[in-house]
Amino acid sequence: MKKKPAPIPEIVATSYLPEQLPALRGAIAIFLGRSNAGKSSLLNAIFKKPLARVSKAPGKTRSVNFYRWGPRLCLVDVPGYGFAQRGREERDAWKDLMAGFFDRVPDTALAFLLLDAKREPEAEEFGLIDALHERGVSTHLLLTKCDRLNQAEREARRRGLEAQFRVPGREIPLTWSFVSAKTGEGVDALRRRLLEYAKEIPISAPTHDPQRPRRGAGD
Questions:
Q1: Which of 13, 96, 107, 161 could form a disulfide with 66 if both were Cys (CB 3.0 to 4.6 A apart)?
Q2: Is residue 206 part of a domain?
Q3: Which CATH number goes with the domain that contains 69?
Q4: pLDDT in tens, 149-208
Q5: 217 located within any domain
């Protein structure tokens, strides 16, 4: 039996304004993170081709970019947050775009929150995780650029995350893993997880319905 060719990823939509955002159906994998967390580099490593624009200057991604990977899976690259040099008008436009996007996110979506492995999570990370959990969206924390950490530093990071996220009053299921677009560490496992997730979600899975009961991340 002839083996099916692997799906070829392609960019299918770019939205700068809320009214440009497409409807979201099927398996939706969202990639979020602070500016310069390495989202574009990681997406290119996952795709094995340079689809996402990479820049040395933080905050270059200003649009929500949608990448179709086969008939079942869409990866969404969300503009980075926390770039101080953006003016108030631009920050307000970012907030409007994000509000419009998350209004369309189905609770079957899977979110990947990128955090530089050398950084401590801050209020923005905790706020995003809480907001996604309220929508029933499961979140996986990706500790990027992990090639810059030695084993002792990795163990310290693991203990720190345990202390920060698994405390009384924060009953949010959260998993995390180390990943490096530079060395490829963790990329194959992430790629497999995405493709397996795509098989679990019907192509016709609907967009978010505010009247529909939310599902928990562990449902």
A1: 13
A2: no
A3: 3.40.50.300
A4: 999 999 999 888 888 877 666 666 778 999 999 999 999 999 999 999 999 998 765 554
A5: no
Q: Is residue 87 part of a domain?
A: yes
Give the chain's domain count.
1
Residues 110-139 have pLDDT tens digits of 999 999 999 988 888 888 888 888 888 989
Among residues 103, 106, 107, 53, the alpha carbon closest in space to that of 80 is found at 53
Give phi and psi for 195, each to the nearest 5. -70, -35
Q: Does residue 4 form part of some domain?
A: no
Q: Which domain holds residue 57?
A: 10-200
